[in-house]
Write a structure and sequence with these properties.
By secondary structure, this protein is α/β, with parallel strands linked by helices. It has two domains: 2-119 and 304-324, Nucleotidyltransferase, domain 5, CATH 3.30.420.40; 123-301, Nucleotidyltransferase, domain 5 (2-Layer Sandwich), CATH 3.30.420. The protein has 13 helices and eleven strands. The protein has helices spanning 2-9, 49-52, 54-72, 92-104, 166-182, 189-198, 203-212, 216-221, 224-232, 236-259, 274-278, 280-292, 305-315; strands at residues 12-18, 22-30, 36-45, 79-86, 108-115, 130-135, 139-144, 149-154, 267-272, 297-301, 323-324. Helix 5 crosses helix 6 and helix 5 (166-182) runs antiparallel to helix 10 (236-259). The N and C termini lie far apart (55 Å). Residues 14-292 form the ATPase BadF/BadG/BcrA/BcrD type domain. It comes from Blastopirellula marina. This is ATPase BadF/BadG/BcrA/BcrD type domain-containing protein.
């Protein structure tokens, strides 16, 4: 009986990472040693209110929470706090509306909604300076100074930006292959692997593959992995493409450091996205180029943003507001 009472009194927390295609929820609690434990996990569909609408976003988040509760064997038990990092919530009014709707859902006493980039600023304190970088299909940077001011850099999308992303690396690889094939030159190694990846052997066939693709951006971004692999093997063309991408990410960090007046102190940089997760190579090149630019830093791979959300919720030092510079 005493154990059951202890379980009932245990404070529960929610961490949710909501994107365009999926929503992940962790239900957790502190154990007797004050270590954070994940009790249950839940997945559901995308919850970006800009793409699926507010009603479906709320429904997806609530579904992920319900599935985490089911996984933990804790149905309907009220949580103390929840931290919801959701794509499409840069606008403060959207964040506040979503937070209100989630509170109405009765899942936690306090529901805080932040943009999905926010976990990249995790350092153990909500007020310490940090920089975050995402290099996946797209790219974006975020930074925070000791005053709690937050700024964004990049994230402009594939038409005008996303340099340093998987899409940008893949696009440069295709451009390289086109140049080789259209000039009638003997295909070099990078051109060969691009053609193999696309199932094509001529410039005309590559054009046909691109035209027929249901998701052209994803198709191109998938080529990034062969660019990285070939660069690791020492291919000069692939290495040049990598250098171009890393240079852009370095510039994002420099811009954030200047905008937020971070000074010359070593930076904590959290990175996420497929290019960083694929291998240590891209991250290593980034650290090398940052060093050459005079930016001292420690780089950490953030591979589980849902757990970071849970950590922030359990720490309870976040007031629910973020100061995003225009």
């Amino acid at each position: 009986m005493g154990s059951e009472q202890s379980e009932a009194r245990r404070e529960l927390f929610l961490g949710v990472d909501g994107g365009g295609t999926k929503t992940s929820c962790y239900l957790g609690a502190l154990d007797e040693n004050l270590s954070l434990c994940v009790l249950g996990r839940g997945l559901s569909s995308g919850s970006n209110p800009n793409t699926v609408g507010m009603d479906k976003a709320v429904a997806a988040i609530l579904e992920s929470v319900e599935r985490a509760q089911q996984d933990a064997g804790i149905i309907g038990q009220f949580c103390c706090r929840g931290l919801f990092a959701v794509a499409g919530t840069l606008n403060m009014d959207v964040r506040r509306e979503l937070a209100a709707r989630l509170s109405e859902g009765g899942i936690a006493a306090k529901c805080d909604v932040v943009p999905d980039l926010y976990p990249l600023l995790e350092t153990g304190s909500k007020d310490s300076a940090a920089v975050g970088l995402i290099a996946g299909t797209g790219s974006v940077g975020i930074g925070r100074n000791a005053a709690g001011e937050i700024a964004l850099a990049g994230g402009w999308g594939p038409l005008v930006g996303d340099d340093g992303s998987g899409f940008a690396l893949g696009k440069d690889a295709i451009r390289h292959a086109f140049n080789q094939l259209e000039q009638g030159a003997a295909a070099d190694r990078l051109t060969e692997v691009v053609c193999q990846q696309l199932g094509a052997s001529t410039a005309t066939e590559i054009r046909a593959k691109l035209a027929a693709a249901a998701d052209q951006r994803s198709l191109i971004a998938q080529l990034a992995k062969v660019v990285v692999s070939e660069a690791v093997e020492g291919d000069r063309s692939a290495s040049s493409i990598i250098s171009k991408g890393v240079f852009y990410l370095t510039e994002l960090v420099k811009h954030l450091r200047t905008r937020l007046k971070l000074g010359e102190a070593p930076l904590t940089i959290n990175v996420s996205g497929g290019l960083f997760q694929q291998s240590d190579y891209y991250c290593g090149r980034l650290k090398e180029m940052l060093g050459e630019a005079g930016v001292a830093c420690q780089i950490h791979l953030l591979d589980d943003p849902t757990f970071i959300c849970l950590t922030i919720a359990a720490r309870a030092d976040f007031d629910g507001e973020i100061r995003l510079l225009p």
